[in-house]
Amino acid sequence: MLQDPTFWVAVAFVIFIAAAFKPLKNGILGGLDAKIAEIRQQVAEAERLRNEAQDLLDTHRRQQRQSLQDAEDIVTRAREDAERHRKDAAVELAAALERQRQLSFEKIAQAEAAAIQEVRNRAVDIAIAATEKILKDRLTGDAGDRLLE
């Protein structure tokens, strides 16, 4: 068997494989370790980015909830203001109508007073004219002269 060239080729092949295996193993394992480290770094970066994205999402959700709450507050205040303005307008309208009513009553009273004064003036004019006519008719002649003297 020591004389067989196949035996020596097999021994040489085993020694070659053993000698080449160690550097190849270190190279392959080093490459794999580097790839593993790179993948771990990418996973860590992805995790960091995911956490940042989650934080941003949470922040935006809080801002959205706050914006919705602010919008609801604004709508509520606007409704309250509108109701208050409606009540104020109703009070002002009622006051204006009451002032207009009073003004109308005053105008009516003034018109009544003017009409009464006109009737009195006409009655006085008629009475004076009637008295003048009666006096003219009755105070003519001797009786009128005596009365005048």
Question: Roughly what percent helix?
Answer: over 70%
- Total individual domains: 1
Low-confidence spans: pLDDT under 50, at least 5 residues? Answer: none
How many strands, what sense, and barrel or not for the largest sheet?
A: none
The coarse silhouette is: rod-shaped
- Oligomerization: single chain
Binned strand content: under 5%
The total of beta strands comes to 0
What is the average per-residue confidence, as pLDDT, rounded to a whole number?
Answer: 90
The value of Rg in angstroms is: 62 Å
Tally of DSSP helical segments: 2
Structural class: mainly alpha
N- and C-termini, Cα separation: 200 Å
Task: Please explain how this structure is put together.
It is built from 2 helices and no strands. It has 149 residues and is mainly alpha-helical. The model has no long low-confidence stretch (mean pLDDT 90). It has one domain. The protein has helices at residues 5-138, 142-148.
Blueprint of the fold:
Layout: H1 5-138, H2 142-148
Task: Give a quick summary of the entry.
The protein is mostly helical. The protein has helices at about 5-140, 140-149.
Keywords:
0% strand; 95% helix; mainly alpha; single chain; 149 residues
